[in-house]
Write a structure and sequence with these properties.
3 copies of one chain form a homotrimer. Chain A has about 260 residues and is an alpha+beta fold. The first copy, chain A, contains 4 helices and 15 strands. Chain A is elongated and about 55 Å long. The interface between A and B is medium-sized, with 34 and 31 residues.
């Protein structure tokens, strides 16, 4: 059984995703295709980076993750594939070389990771791809061929992992005030996920401060009184800000980049 | 062939649903997974109850319906599975014990229905589940194991069907004015579905009154003049209020709970 | 392997699509089902026509495309199936006879296309279908039976291709000012797709004029400076208006039908 995940910023209304599914079905009829999400905000490479980084390790070994959030489509940005081995299992990624794999590459070394530039047009849908829809003409067909078992080394020229485009983020830092970080993602519930890793928070109970307000940690949303702001260790293993039964992002006016301090941890 | 349906309030933008798909694929690679909907309004157990109740009987025998609308995640609410036999076919449900199965349980008796509390951690993704994402760590893996044929009795301790959490609804009642009921659901078209069952409406033509207006029944949307308010027997087998080519909910300011009377039926 | 695509205006929130998936799974358990889109604006037959026309040829031979955008459901409009052979490959369509197949039929002749009216109730879900949900009771089950290999001629009475409902569109025309056309579709990014075919634009560089502004052609979005309006040949093979990193439709107030002129081509 082969499995392909799709992540794009195409939305669902236009048939672009459907067309990619058709292209995949022509090459890898028996592959299972899972829509990771198609609602990445248009051209938001940072949001796609976050979702990719936090989801791939839940999939079976050999899964091919096809990511098309690609503001530079048709320009000279590279199209790449990356194979990462984690705990003995390989995961494949097919994506533009624009930083979207930055989170995945956080654990990459020369020994557990290989990369290629997608230069072998044999595995494209057409030798004359559209200048605006590489999802259909390059990324989907290459992902389908990988899922069919085509050798990773055949799909393009090897490139150094250290040459791949990365994003620059400020990490959370420990200060005398506490751990200072920032919001890196806001989900559909309005939960705000910080860049403070769970493993830096060892106390059972702690406080979190942002936008001039300080509030208490709880184990889960429902443990706090209804409508109460809370900090918690989220399912992504980052410190998270939430409201029981509401949107923390709306309540506090949180955005990606808003500063946050965890105290007493 | 095994089949799993997923219903959540996770939306589509964040990758939460994709992660559940990955967890399922690791356990039940050959299962077909159908997204029933992921756009239940956040924490709206009543809407999920309506969709579950009106959709499950269209699926093949043995389907596992995994429902994660779970405002109480991480609190002491139970996680449950229910097996209901209808017309000789069993349907499985995996869900929090918060009333979301209330509509499904309307037909449940001790002889056609069994329930268990999901206490057997062997079938969880991890013995230390996240306090906020039981969809990933408990509900999805248990659903996948059931789809793989794991015995229902093995996944947890048997509990009495009569001990499951139910929701309290006022039923439609016959009065001298007509049948008095209320709106129980509003769909994406703005059609308002009442709690008045089709079988209580035996006349060929009848009237419906709500928000100070009275209008006529038609067989289908397109049978009414364009823009006309109408009553009809909807596809869910409930009395429904609609506008040909428009939104009845917007036009009349209808909400869940708005009173409705059917006359001349 | 059999493949069914679904396109509707049902949205994703209500379970209507899920129910169609259940009906299909009961008939064609092994079929792969691809959601082309369910977010066609309610009752917008023109938008569905555009998506169908631009997506079907990317799917494998034998694919069954089930389209339910059906404002006339329950009235006397016909339900139809069409088989079109392109480059030796047959594609099947199951849909209401309301013009939604107009774009697909642009290439249809008596020799490459057959049509039937869905009159054989053997292949419906029930001989007494709902007056409002033919997607569940007629279109989905007929599509599933076709995917299972049921003979096209068995599902209903043959009808003449020339008798099918078409839509009337003004085509783009060449004038002394340039090629005059109009917007036929606006996608999720706010890109506006005109009805001017790519093959009428042979110059390497050209200009496009709409809403009192004139701007330059580029090969792809990212080739233009950030925020710049541009014309380009889109992936659908129509002239398209876009903004690098923004929404052309919002910037210029474009709508379906807005006039556009391509000059210097």
């Amino acid at each position: 059984m082969s499995l392909i995940t799709l992540m794009t910023d195409f939305g669902r209304c236009d048939g672009y995703v459907g067309v990619m599914r058709g292209v995949i079905a022509k090459i890898a009829a028996a592959a299972t295709v899972v829509d990771l999400t198609h609602d990445i905000p248009p051209q938001n490479v940072g949001a796609a980076r976050f979702v990719a980084m936090n989801s791939y390790r839940y999939f079976p070994a050999g899964t091919v993750h096809c990511i098309v959030v690609d503001p530079g489509v048709g320009t000279r940005r590279r199209a790449i594939a990356v194979a990462v081995t984690v705990d003995g299992d390989v995961q494949f990624f097919v994506a533009p070389d624009n930083g979207v794999l930055d989170g995945v590459l956080a654990i990459a070394t020369d020994s557990n990771c290989r990369a290629v530039s997608l230069t072998n047009r044999t595995y494209w849908r057409t030798k004359e791809p559209s200048a605006t829809f590489h999802g259909r003409d390059i990324f989907a067909p290459v992902a389908a061929h990988l899922a069919q078992g085509v050798d990773f080394a055949l799909i393009g020229e090897a490139i150094s992992v250290s040459a791949l485009v990365r994003m620059s983020f400020r990490s959370a830092i420990a200060t005398s005030q506490g751990i200072c970080g920032s919001i890196q993602y806001i989900d559909r519930f309005g939960n705000a996920i910080t860049n403070i890793p769970a493993e830096q928070v060892t106390a059972r109970s702690w406080q979190i401060r942002t936008q001039g307000q300080t509030f208490q940690s709880y184990r889960s949303y429902g443990d706090a009184p209804s409508g109460r702001l809370l900090g918690l260790i989220g399912s992504h293993d980052w410190v998270e800000i939430a409201v029981n039964g509401g949107s923390a992002a709306k309540r506090l006016g949180l955005q990606v980049g808003t500063s946050v301090t965890v105290m007493g941890c």
